[in-house]
Amino acid sequence: MDKERESPLNRPATDGADQGGAGDEGKAPRFRRWLGGLIARKWFFPALYLAAAAFILSFIFWYQSTKPYTMDKDQGLPAVSDREPQAVLEVPAADDVPVTKAKTPIWPVAQGTPVKIVRPFYNDEASAEERARALVEVAQSYYPNTGIDLAVDGKTPFDVVAVMDGTVTRADVDPVVGGVVWVDHGDGTRTTYASLGAIRVKEGDAVRQGDVLGTAGTSPMGKDLGLHLHFEVLRDGRPVDPLTVLPSQN
Q: What is the spatial distance between Cα 224 and Cα 78, in angstroms, rounded to a whole number?
């Protein structure tokens, strides 16, 4: 009877060693000698360190350039947002919905308050001078302003009001942006009122257009502006230039 053939899975792994082992054993010492000689050179480790540092820095600069920033509820510093850099936005057409269908938005200050824009919304296509004015310094880093900052003269307080009817979804004090109130307007639009010195509403309150939400104050993020209001408009979570939503004059 012929001897039963062995399965290839059960054969000892000897063929490869018999055929190619000698060649492999000759190559390994040469490679180790070459590698050892390379490591022994004085410039090897400094060159390796500089190459690694250059790679890490290049990755950090690339990553930061692709991620603009916006204020975050749960973190002290602005958090990375997934939106692309904001381009020039056109004033909405008459048939567009600004904040709600019922009313036209008003400015976030009492009518007649002589405020001026002390820091504009960051527009990626604006002039270099305008872009520089729209940068916010935080911890020796600069971030694009995702809203507008309003003040009388940096010393005069003023009331901050709701631009439209809505529901307060946040009302607390943030260590970076000061007192902050979020108002949800029920159509994918949210307005943010930050750098408040006093807060007159609480989470869950229903507010009407013109209701006082708080007073202008100061914040670490806008300490160079004195008493002011930081105001944002977000549509579906994306900041838009408030001037494309607000009427032309207060």
A: 17
pLDDT tens string, the chain, 250 residues long: the values are: 444 443 333 444 444 444 444 455 556 677 677 767 767 776 667 767 676 666 665 655 555 444 444 444 444 444 433 444 333 333 344 344 344 445 799 999 998 899 999 999 999 889 999 999 999 887 778 889 999 999 999 999 999 999 999 999 999 999 989 999 999 999 899 999 999 999 999 999 999 999 999 999 999 888 899 999 999 999 999 999 999 999 987 7
> Between vectors from CA 71 to CA 240 and to CA 142, what angle results, nearest 5°?
90
Q: Given the structure tokens 């919905």, which residue do they identify?
A: 97
Q: Helix crossing, 44-65 with 15-40: angle to 10°?
A: 90
The model's pTM: 0.61
Q: Which residues contact 224 (CB under 8 A, 6 or more apart)?
A: 137
Provide the H-helix boundaries in the chain.
15-40, 44-65, 128-133
Q: What's CA 51's distance to the chain center, in Å?
A: 30
**Nearest alpha carbon to residue 153 among 247, 216, 64, 84:** 216
Q: CA Rg, the chain, in Å? A: 31
**What CATH code would you report for 87-244?**
2.70.70.10
Instruction: Give the start-to-end residue ranges of the domains of the chain.
Output: 14-65, 87-244
Q: Which positions ≥6 away from 178 have C-beta within 8 Å?
A: 194, 195, 196, 197, 217, 218, 219, 220, 221, 222
Beta bridge partners of 173: 179
